[in-house]
Automatic annotation (TrEMBL):
Entry membrane topology: Multi-pass membrane protein
Residues spanning the membrane: 21-47, 67-90, 102-121, 165-187, 215-234, 351-369, 375-394, 406-425, 445-466
Species the sequence originates in: Solanum tuberosum
Name of the protein in question: Major facilitator superfamily (MFS) profile domain-containing protein
Annotated keywords: Membrane, Phosphate transport, Symport, Transmembrane, Transmembrane helix, Transport
A Pfam entry, by short name: Sugar_tr
Biological classification of the source: Eukaryota, Viridiplantae, Streptophyta, Embryophyta, Tracheophyta
N-terminal signal peptide: none
Catalytic activity field: phosphate(in) + H(+)(in) = phosphate(out) + H(+)(out)
Entry's localization field: Membrane
Family designation: Belongs to the major facilitator superfamily. Phosphate:H(+) symporter (TC 2.A.1.9) family.
Record-annotated Major facilitator superfamily (MFS) profile domain positions: 26-510
Chief subcellular location: membrane
Length: 525
């Protein structure tokens, strides 16, 4: 591989470095943040039915209590709103203060709020839900910071040959986070079910929810803080990335020393070259300039629109898979279970989907992203998500019949598989590569925030849209919707639109970050 003589020696050393231990250390440190992010964002869907039974079951009801629409949407969506705000704020801060300084803040916020959300207090259901929503907002705020910072740190540490795989591997830890949340819920609910025997709701409504079940959701939510807390020490020991130190902070000597230590080689500091770069007019434009719009406007539109469209489909699928499973009978009818058994059944379904399709999809991306490229994977992923979504939606009645339920689960799993071996991974990778170092974290934060806006649309919109067209069959408090079948058709159309927007996103495979972001390093325009 040729050395770029115009580039700084420290950046060339990183681009051409052989894959070594520090790469894997960086993947684990950054990836554990993502593990926690996924755990915290998706574990809530395991316990919302339990919260409904605990706090909203009325003595005279013929079926278990469910969270009222506003409460359900808030508990599910408030962390996403916090995440959106955190992505914008910490993305901007990461370019202003440096990646490393901000990285510790986000982790502390995640750990504290993860524990606090499990300690939500109150004498009334409203009090408990309000404190839960408050802490989940700030938990989301910390999680939001992890998106731009983890991606940027990994992209700036990686070599150019395997950079895509390294960033995707950080993101792939999300799959393990979703899997782990299911496993924790399975173990916790199985333990409580064994210790506190209870009749089903149909047998005895009052006794079907044991008082001790209140601990279950708290344990599940608090457990998410553990992996993040374990990596705090190593996060603080990581040196600042050389690209930030040299190209943004303009400290050539420190960048050379830091990376020399990491790579265990002698690197020349080249202070004169850094001085020359800092005077170069072509590297001075800001985010709100015509020059940025000319060079990167279409790219930013591409990364924002594809992430926005993907997350509408991805989050509505993920957060509401328990409703889809109930509709096709994979989770038994609520009155036939007690509260703890219901948590177990929902967790089992989510764990199986994560194990069979979500996790493998992520690692397929890791394996192939530097071989077939980001563009091809994203286009292919959107295409197959569209195909499988329509294949589920159009003959929807066929899939609800007892004989065809396994077929339905297989088709549903494939949409997950191609989301993860597709746009869910690539939309995270590309914004960390195609923007200049001084705007990289900010632009990744903006792209990720567009994604979370899509997630909010998916989470809130699907909740109402998926209600039955027949007003007598809707969940308590909900207006009639367009039904699950029509909701799935809408999601299919959204995936098809994502395919078109992918054409705005450039390919960055095999390029250095400076080439991919069109950053002139030589001091010449």
């Amino acid at each position: 591989m040729a050395v770029d003589d115009n580039n700084l020696q420290v950046l060339n050393a990183l681009d051409l470095a052989k894959t070594q231990l520090y790469h894997f250390t960086a993947i684990i440190i950054a990836g554990m943040g993502f593990f926690t992010d996924a755990y915290d964002l998706f574990s809530i869907s395991l316990v919302t039915k339990l919260l409904g039974r605990l706090y909203y079951t009325k003595p005279d009801l013929l079926k278990p209590g469910t969270l009222p629409p506003v409460v359900s949407a808030s508990v599910t969506g408030v962390a996403l709103v916090g995440t959106l705000a955190g992505q914008l704020f910490f993305g901007w801060l990461g370019d202003k203060m440096g990646r490393k300084k901000v990285y510790g803040m986000t982790l502390v916020l995640m750990v504290v709020c993860s524990v606090a959300s499990g300690l939500s207090l109150g004498n009334t259901p409203k009090g408990v839900m309000t404190t839960l929503c408050f802490f989940r907002f700030w938990l989301g705020f910390g999680i939001g910071g992890d998106y731009p910072l983890s991606a940027t740190i990994m992209s700036e540490y990686a070599n150019k040959k395997t950079r895509g795989a390294f960033i995707a591997a950080v993101f792939a830890m999300q799959g393990f986070g979703i899997l782990f949340s299911g496993i924790v819920a399975l173990i916790t609910s199985a333990g409580f079910d064994h210790a506190y025997k209870a009749p089903t709701f149909a047998e005895n409504a009052a006794l079907s929810t044991v008082p001790q079940a209140d601990y279950i959701w708290r344990i599940i939510l608090m457990f998410g803080s553990l992996p993040a807390a374990l990596t705090y020490y190593w996060r603080m020991k990581m040196p600042e990335t050389a690209r930030y130190t040299a190209l943004v902070a303009k400290d050539a000597k420190r960048a050379a020393q830091d990376m020399g230590r990491v790579l265990q080689v002698e690197i020349e500091s080249e202070e004169a070259k850094v001085e020359q770069i800092s005077r170069d007019e072509t590297n001075q434009f800001g985010l709100f300039s015509w020059e940025f719009v000319r060079r990167h406007g279409l790219h930013l539109f591409g990364t924002c629109s594809t992430w926005f469209l993907l997350d509408i489909a991805f989050y509505s699928q993920n957060l509401f898979q328990k409703d889809v499973f109930s509709a096709v009978g994979w989770i038994p009818k609520a009155p036939t279970m007690n509260a703890v058994q219901e948590v177990y059944k929902i967790a089992r379904a989510q764990t199986l989907i994560a194990l069979c399709s979500t996790v493998p999809g992520y690692w397929f991306t890791v394996a192939f992203i530097d071989i077939i490229g980001r563009f091809a994977i994203q286009l292919m992923g959107f295409f197959f998500m569209t195909v499988f979504m329509f294949a589920i939606a159009i003959p929807y009645h066929h899939w609800t019949l007892d004989a065809n339920r396994i077929g339905f689960i297989v088709m549903y799993s494939f949409t997950f598989f191609f989301a993860n071996f597709g746009p869910n991974a690539t939309t995270f990778v590309v914004p960390a590569e195609i923007f200049p170092a001084r705007l990289r974290s900010t632009c990744h934060g903006i792209s990720a925030a567009a994604g979370k806006a899509g997630a909010i649309v998916g989470a809130y919109g699907f909740l109402y849209a998926a209600q039955s067209k027949d007003p007598t069959k809707t969940d308590a408090g909900y207006p009639a919707g367009i039904g699950i079948k029509n909701s799935l058709i809408v999601l299919g159309c959204i995936n098809a639109l994502g395919m078109l927007c992918t054409f705005c996103v450039p390919e960055s495979k095999g390029k250095s970050l400076e080439e991919a972001s069109q950053e002139t390093i030589s001091g010449e325009a």
